[in-house]
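Subject: design request, 94 residues
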């Protein structure tokens, strides 16, 4: 198991409940692949550095996890196809 920081931005047009459902779904994907979520942080709505998919701001979330590369690949795959996630990044922490 390796340590990763997973940050993703959810589109700002979603209501709070729908935004939290996106977070729960992303965590569920990791947990199904036996990843351990060390910490999670809701960073709130922030302005983007540049417009992404027509949005100037978004709801930021940071997950610190211990996971296998396969779990992170699945997270990455789902984040790419989820229309509510407008941007994401995966960083391996040594």
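Subject: RE: design request

Done. Sequence follows.
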């Amino acid at each position: 198991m390796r340590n990763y920081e997973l940050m993703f931005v959810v589109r700002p047009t979603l209501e709070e409940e729908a935004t939290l459902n996106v977070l729960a779904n992303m965590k569920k994907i990791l947990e199904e692949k036996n990843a351990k979520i060390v910490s999670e942080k809701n960073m709130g709505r922030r302005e983007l550095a540049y417009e992404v998919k027509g949005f100037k701001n978004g709801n930021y979330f940071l997950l610190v996890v211990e996971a296998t590369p396969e779990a992170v690949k699945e997270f990455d795959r789902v984040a790419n196809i989820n229309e509510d996630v407008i941007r994401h990044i995966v960083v391996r922490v040594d």
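Residues 16-32 form the longest helix (17 residues).
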